[in-house]
## 1
Amino acid sequence: MSIHSVKQELKFLSKPAKAKILQHFFKTGRGEYGEGDIFIGVTVPQTRAIAKKHASAPIIELEELLESKVHEERLAALLILVEKFKKAGEKEKKEILEYYLQNTKFVNNWDLVDLTADKIVGEYLLEKNKRILHKFARSNSLWKKRIAIIATFAFIKKNSFEETFKIAEQLLEDRNDLIHKAVGWMLREIGKRNLEAEEAFLKKHYKKMPRTMLRYSIEKFSEKKRQAYLKANF
């Protein structure tokens, strides 16, 4: 695998008009959460296809991509890690996890987190100690906090909700809208599988939940039930 090949394939698929839209959508302006991020206009499916093609790349060769200022190049590196993790043995999975955790400063936009955290961090921790997630949830880093809650999607898919609820409680007073959305999304995913479990959590916390978090978590409820929750939220 050649890093140059990955970059060239991404460049070939780039579209300046789409890049402009993505720059705005992912809030790359001054003072915004994605400040300075550079897009070239390649879609996620296109980037994923390139990642699958180059999934045999040694981890050490991914550094140039992962440290790139170009968003799609970082995404390609992370999706290569996801592909490698799927086929890896226990030893290599640990190496991939450690590499991911050591490089979270480059997992620095919400799509980069959402496309990888559950598939690497969550999957690895399914039967292991979850301490690192709680440490991340207490972090000052927006992206580490989002990794913490999104990683639990792997547990939710196995109908295990305890860690999601614990981390959601840690993040109830967080002020960032991207955290509110992520927590609400995970609570909604629990509700798809066990509505009683989600509502038990909501009944305990909904009055003090950030409104965006609550809205996301009750999105699939009936209109009558949604309004009942919203009216009692302050």
## 2
Amino acid sequence: MNNFQSAFISYGRADSKAFATKLYNRLRAENLEIWFDQNDIPLGVDFQKQIDDGIETSDNFLFIIAPHSINSPYCGKEIDLALKRNKRIIPLLHVEQITEEIWQQRNPDKDPSEWETYKAKGLHSSYPNMHPAIGKINWVYFRENIDDFEQSFAGLLELLTRHQEYVHQHTYFLAKALEWERQQQQSSYLLIGDERVEAEKWLKTRFKEEQPPCEPTDLHCAFICQSVKNANNLMTQVFLSYSDEERELMKKITKTLMRESFTVWTNTTDIQISSLTEKFQGMYRYVKLS
């Protein structure tokens, strides 16, 4: 089974390599398993796959806000995958903007006049091009020479331990669901026994007086509900009948019901290809004999 981490650190090297390294070392000192690209990408492998796996198997996604990370297409991909997998995202504000002096030090061969063009594109700042999902999450402030690192770090640790078990189950069942999906949804990869019962209980968890730390994905819901259905000899709680014109509505209703842990029968998910093949073969034999 997959190795899991408490957090994945996403950052831009130009602005935050030293800070990310310091953060990684402090988190490891707290006995937390942390995915960090400087340590977790072996030589001679597909680095993007390693990064994707790291995000999917980490309970939390720590995004270090700085101009380089905000404007990096690679960091953008990491954010998009964290959002797709409904990870708990914790933004850490590190650098609000860089000065012309810093820009010139990094680009000694460029003409000073290019600084204005750089600024006009918002590349010097963390704000103009910020991903909207990052912009609406409450940040942890780690600005150098402004915020107290130890105080901010204590706040981050408190966040990481909040609803820790629920968030880890999100990661664990996601890994199981992804394996099921990658194996063409074979029933042998579904949850069974106590693990299935625990997954169903997790899916039914509701946070009534606060926002949930993360939400189940549609894949979570489909995987867990299919596991329940499989345990009940494919019996379901809801049968959906619809016309072809209502197919998209059917999909929305199915996802909504599964999110509430209802098992659903539809012709797109519950008529096995093998069964159809046998029927067509029988029809072929009948026509041929007649």
## 3
Amino acid sequence: MKAKQNGKLSQSLMITILIIITILVSVTIWLSSKTNESEGHGHDEGNAEHSDEESSEEGEIQLTSQQMVEQGLKVAVASTGLVEKLTTLPGKLVVNTDQQAHISPNFSGHVEQVNVALGQSVQKGQTLAVLIVPELIDQQATLRMAQANLDFARQDYQREQQLWSQGISAKQDYQRAENAYRQAQITVQSSQARLNALGASGNNNGRFLIRAPISGVISQKDIVVGENVQLADQIFVIEQLKDLWLEFNLPNQFSGQLQAGQKIDFKVNDSEQAYRAIVQNLTSQADIQTGRLVVRAKLDAQAAELRPNVLVRVLISEAPTKSALRIQKSALQSIEGEDSIFIIDSEQKGQVRLKAQKVQLGQASSDGQWLEVISGLTEGQKYIAQGSFLLKSELEKDEAGHEH
């Protein structure tokens, strides 16, 4: 009887254990499904947060203070300053005609030597070329004959003077010798003066030396060995380049804005380097073809790129100077075809958030360094004045990465 009861107890115990195991397995499966569901929701939320973060960072760059220093970024504060509207007029650098020499020969002759080349610097009095001049041969021979006659007349005069002082010769013989001597002197002086006036000497055997009348640079040369040149031929032009002029035509609306002594700025066409010139004069009559006044200004400085016939851009103020909110021109970048700058959006614990900001611009300053801001920026706002092109490159790189 006991054995039978023990068997029943063992069977009941086994059933109870199976039920418990079944319950435990069910609970485990239910908990596992809840965990996976929770993780799935968490992943979706994380993706949403990441998406929001990407959306909020569009057009923004975050750097540390150290990175800004390493990249050479310079911060400036938007403030008011002087700006003016500029008009660009075409101009040209020309030689000061008061510092120029046109050289023609004083005789017609045959070219024996040419001693200088085009573009060569020469000094005043330097020999440029040598001509053989038949006419000069005759004049030099006449001078030598006159000098020989002078020597003979001097000797005769000195002899007659001595004889007359000793009472040997008559006074009229002494006076005749004196008159002949004076006449010979005049003849020599006349021949010598004529040669000197033509720039020749009496002992070059028919050779005429063409010399530089001023120091400067040979800008034109039209002479070669072996050719014949005439009196009217212009064979050399010498220019002094240290005093170049700026010349341009001034429209009528600006006629009252320029006067002698005023300083104006200009730039060489292929350069952004600004130079200055001082107005010398405005012609009293307008140019026949354009109807504009011709302005000539003297360059205030010298530089290698400032040469005769170089084309330049003259900067003329079109409106009175005014004070306006302005930024440095170096800060400006074109982003998506819009004028933009990078402003400092926030600064916290060494982290700097930069944002691309579109701006509407107005006039530029006379030196070209400042731009008026009409909208998109407020006074006192910080912006990147130098190095903004690096930020633009970084922004474009990030946008390209997001597209992929």
